[in-house]
Write a structure and sequence with these properties.
This protein has about 140 residues and is mostly helical. It is built from 9 helices and no strands. The relative contact order is 0.09.
Length: about 140
């Protein structure tokens, strides 16, 4: 079903309803062991995450968060979002603020995603602290 969602594998526009139905009705086990694996083998763009990375917009960012959550990689999603918001010319202040505020609130204990984990992963991946990266980019 995910293959029919992506325009690289079929004619016409992306079918968001099929993508939402697939992620919303399949178990995490089925998504990880069958759906994503099948898509990765058949996709012309090299996998669902590479396809989503080639698209733009808040809806696609939401889809990427769902895929990363299903794969147990949500911390990495936030790390990449923060880095992308600050790298190169220009800064996406709204994304930085929204991410930092939402991840620093303690009411999200169920997801086990908090700012401390994001800071740790950011440092491991990019070799600098999140605090320094934000200071350098916003000053």
């Amino acid at each position: 079903m995910l293959l029919r969602w992506c325009p690289s594998n079929t004619s016409g526009p992306r079918d968001d309803a099929k993508f939402i139905a697939t992620l919303g009705t399949r178990s995490l086990l089925q998504l990880n062991l069958a759906t994503f694996e099948y898509y990765d083998q058949k996709s012309k763009k090299g996998g669902i995450e590479k396809y989503l990375a080639s698209e733009k917009g808040e809806v696609v960012d939401g889809y990427m968060a769902l895929v990363k959550t299903a794969k147990g990689e949500l911390i990495q999603f936030y790390v990449d979002q923060l880095y992308a918001a600050m790298k190169g010319l220009g800064t996406d202040d709204n994304l930085i603020i929204r991410t930092l505020i939402s991840r620093s609130e303690s009411c999200f204990l169920i997801t086990q995603i908090d700012l401390a984990n994001i800071k740790q992963e950011f440092h491991a991946k990019y070799g600098t602290t999140l605090e320094n990266f934000v200071k350098d980019d916003t000053s």
